[in-house]
Input
Amino acid sequence: MINALLFSGILLIISVLSSKLLYRFGIPTLLIFISLGMLLGSDGIGGIYFDNYEIAQQLSTLSLVFIMFYGGFGFNWKTGKPVAAQSILLATFGVAITAFLVGAFATIIFKTSLMEGMLLGAVISSTDAASVFSILRSKNLNLKGGLASMLEMESGSNDPMSYMLTIIVLAFMKSSGQISVIELLSKQIFFGLAVGVAVSIVAVFVFNRIKISIEGLYPIFTIGIVLTGYALSELLSGNGLLCVYVIGIIMGNTTLIHKRSLVHFFDGMSWLMQIILFFTLGLLVFPSQLPPVFFEGFLVSIFLVLIARPIAVFSVLSWFKVPIKQQLLVSWVGLRGAASIVFATYALTSNLPFANTIFNMVFFICLVSILIQGTLIPFIAKKLDLVEQSVSVYKTFNDYQDEVYTKLIEYKIENDHPWAWKTIMEANIPEDILVVIIKRKKTVITPKGFTEIQPGDIMVLSSNNFESLPS
Output
């Protein structure tokens, strides 16, 4: 037990320090943590032998649940709304097109069965948000035309589609085609969305009305919400990953008590889940088994980057008259990452005879994608003149603040004021106005979300613009 704790502690310290060093060079965290797993695995210096696919899948899926939730929770809907339609279509039809093209390519070139090819296509069809934004953040690159928001929303929401296609193909193979694909697809989408919306609405309602005296319990409450939503969706044959992403978007873009502390908590938790996820996948792979799939993996990588992804992107974005330069960049920034490797473990746990080959090939494709595509993103963005110099890429996220409030006013609440007898959460105070303190007779109150505003109160407000205040 003590040895395990010591090993875990040292691993976390090394992961954090190495990510800080390599982050400056725009190297995605996935590559750092997976490399640590491979280095400490059975083929590396650590000699840790790990081939339990069931445990790896369960750990990876749990990690992915919280990564998906935070992807939605941290996404700024106000910034992403103008490109929401494009992002959603890329995350659905774009993924389906990519999966079909890669599947057809594998079937024709490698002489596999149609279902084997489609399984490879389904597994590798989604893009990785963490890798993309690790590069954009480290280089502080924002993209013109709302591309950063489009890529964030697409890559954050296309994992459920890839997961759904993987589950459908596996179910089709196990049942020898004796299943209703339309029924399975409908259940996945309907229950994933329905449970996500229902759970998040109830969660927001309860969240803002309970008064927990200990602020640290709010993140634990949120963890319970995420796990409940995922489990309910899966029990109803819905898409659990889609469910938690929807919960994240709704909760992240709704006024919540202690929201900023929640963002910071789940940011840290998301990093922890990434370390667990990537390290587990790094342990699971045997580097000595990768050379036999180098040729096939490289061919699929080239086809994916130069043909499948561009066809999918142009098929969707051309309808919106998106400039060619922007479509080219979106085509390039289609990095494959952790989710694809996780979905490949579903083939392993299904005991398919070719599952190990698919897993190794997907692992190799993801490494190639990150090393080649990822490294060249800043260069290509600059060459296409799509780097936005005046706006920070962090504006895509909910915890971004680009304004320092420099004006303070005292604002008195009269008897007929619309805020009277409402809590700060219920008063619908404009987002760009900060309540600093409340003066009530001879008492000074530190405002909280559940603090009730009473007639006669003098509120000290901070903002750069008070025009939205009720007159």
